[in-house]
Here is the input.
Amino acid sequence: MPPNPPILPPVLFAGTSSTERSRVGELKKRGAIRSVGPGVYVSVPEKDVAKTLREAWSLIVANRFPGALVSHRTALEFRPSVEGDVFITASTNRELKYPGLTLRFVRGPLPLPDDGSVMGFRVSSNARALLENVSTDKRTVDRRVPRETIEAQLEQILHLGGEAELNAVRDRARQIAEQFDWKKEGDELDRLIGTLLGTREGPVTSELARARVIGEPFDAARVERFSLLFGALRTPLPQLRDVFTAPDHHKNKAFFESYFSNYIEGTRFAIEEAEEIVFDKKIPAARPKDAHDVLATFDVVSSSSEMGRTPETFEAFSTLLQDRHATIMARRPEAEPGVFKTRPNFAGDTEFVHPDYLRGTLRKGFEIYTSVQPGLHRAIFMMFLIAEVHPFVDGNGRTARIMMNAELVSESLSTIIIPTVFRDDYINALRALTRRNRPGPLIAALLKAHRFSHLEFSPYPTILKELARRNWFREPDDARLID
Here is the structure.
């Protein structure tokens, strides 16, 4: 049998040596590759050529124009524009067209020492690229990113590097503007930076920049995630009314809600110990803080007046959130009860909303919340809003579930409990939205929990036996939920 033909890269270049040129010529003669423009060949089907060349733009620039200065919007985005344009500063204006990709050479100054170097070509420094992109000349609009993108980048520099870093960018931009006689661009960038720093007044375009100017910047990625969840919640969901009237139903359900909500966060007692803590007010001397966590959560969720409260304004929302957290974490001063966090917090490799963005992100989330249908829809949204922002040092999960169930109580709907056996399903559903922008699993998980939590929780011995039968107390690795 003849040997298998070698696997060719999707993009090849005319060689610089006679051997390389001979190999390319042979491949072309055999029809294994074909020319798509000066010095560039492809081995992919015709339908894939444009996409392949756009993806390989940096290889093409590096191979065909080593030392070239990639500039303007390409320097900031490091990808072709939607139209397939890549901008390169050079000594002349010209265009080099390939299928789906156009290299646009723009007459301009030579590279500066601090312009970056990657893959054998140069890239405009941050300060230079910002100047290239703030021009207001209508003839060059296609070279520039939208003004919102510039403002977002400046806001990120301020967030990550602080005022010192943003001032350093401005100082370097001033030097470049003077050297290149880019006065208009220099003045415009200086105005934008001054506005974000609060030292000047001027208009800004993006919502993110406006929030920074008024002192409430927000996490744009999180707000986009809230919008995804809002969109997914714009469909009917079956909602179960709490129709049970037995005398101890609400009290007993509140007990199990408190027990499991703390258990999932690591505050774990045997069920008999938890019964003594809540019903007999017997606080174990060895674990007073843990016992208070369970008891305080119970005190909140067992109060029909407290759980019937839902916020109508952002100020009311913020106060309600802090008050409930202060109550359940009152015995843990290290958790700063009722105080929004002032330092970043993490869960594994997930970083929650930075303290600088906390209030702004909560406000944006609350604005979306007010447009969500009351009941189960709002309950799901509220829980994720608190869990995703993680506004406190500790106690965020418990607070999020309290806020969720208050939305259900206020509409006389059955509350949700996350039993131990369902813990992994719940956490994985949260992660699907947090890490992969998939709201479906979270909605499905909480809809399922809404359904299996819809039980009559009285009399106590009967419901305790029933929950054990359904494996509520079992670890997820050891059993499955019997619904």
Remarks:
- Residues 147-213 form one domain.
- The first strand starts at residue 11 and ends at 13.
- The mean pLDDT is 94.
- Residues 250 and 302 are 7 Å apart (CA to CA).
